[in-house]
């Protein structure tokens, strides 16, 4: 999809992620938000590099009816990978604690799959980022994960993208 094709059309972000919304706003895009909630499971035989784009396309398939003739649908998904293990979204506070403790002091890969689609065309791609966690000084205390720089409260669990 070339810039002229995209620039003259309305963008629809099919995501409830505050971070994705923030990134698009900071990049200067005008868009509507229409969150979609899907089962983010994937076939076990998929390579770790393919999972994010698979789920992004799955979201686009579920949101296809959201878009009008003059709109472009944007869906995305990110997966955190350490070695050959994918870290899914934490299911609860204890799971988030376990994940952060496991990633502490290690480099990991974040794959972000993106699907742009309108009624006639589709573009799917994956970005790869290396992320390095410093050694986190984590202590469990009154439902809070803490270190000297950051605090995560149990009632404000982050998504994978922010």
- The total count of helices amounts to 4
Distance between the termini: 27 Å
Poorly predicted ranges (pLDDT <50, ≥5 residues)?
147-158
Mean of pLDDT: 83
Gyration radius, to the nearest Å?
A: 17 Å
Strand content: 25-35%
Order of helices and strands: HEHEHEEHEEEEE
In terms of quaternary structure, the protein is single chain
Q: How would you sum up the major sheet?
A: 6 strands, mixed
Shape: globular
Task: Give the % helix.
Answer: 25-40%
Structural class call reads: alpha+beta
Key descriptive features of the protein:
alpha+beta; 3-stranded antiparallel β-sheet; 33% strand
Walk me through what this model shows.
The chain has 162 residues and is of the alpha+beta class. It is built from four helices and nine strands; from the N terminus they run αβαβαββαβββββ. The protein has helices at residues 3-7, 18-26, 48-63, 93-103, and strands spanning 10-13, 31-33, 71-82, 85-87, 107-117, 122-132, 139-141, 144-146, 151-153. Strands 1, 2, 3, 4, 5 and 6 form a six-stranded mixed beta sheet that branches. Strands 7-8-9 form a three-stranded antiparallel beta sheet, with no helix packed on it. Strand 5 and strand 6 form a beta hairpin. The longest helix is centred in the middle third of the chain and has 16 residues, at 48-63. The protein is globular and about 50 Å long. The two termini are 27 Å apart. The relative contact order is 0.18.
């Amino acid at each position: 999809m070339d810039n002229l094709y995209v620039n003259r059309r309305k963008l629809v972000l099919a995501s409830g992620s505050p971070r994705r919304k923030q990134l698009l706003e900071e990049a200067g895009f005008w868009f509507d938000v229409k969150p979609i909630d899907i089962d983010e499971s994937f076939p076990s035989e998929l390579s770790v590099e393919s999972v994010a784009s698979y789920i992004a396309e799955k979201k686009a398939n579920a949101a296809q009816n959201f878009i009008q003739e003059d709109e472009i649908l944007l869906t995305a998904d990110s997966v955190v990978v350490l070695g050959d293990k994918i870290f899914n979204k934490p299911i609860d506070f204890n799971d988030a604690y376990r994940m952060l403790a496991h990633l502490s002091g290690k480099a990991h890969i974040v794959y972000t799959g993106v699907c742009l689609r309108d009624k006639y065309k589709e573009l799917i791609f994956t970005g790869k980022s290396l992320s390095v966690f410093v050694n986190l000084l984590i202590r469990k205390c009154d439902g809070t994960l803490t270190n000297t720089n950051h605090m995560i409260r149990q009632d404000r669990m982050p998504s994978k993208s922010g």
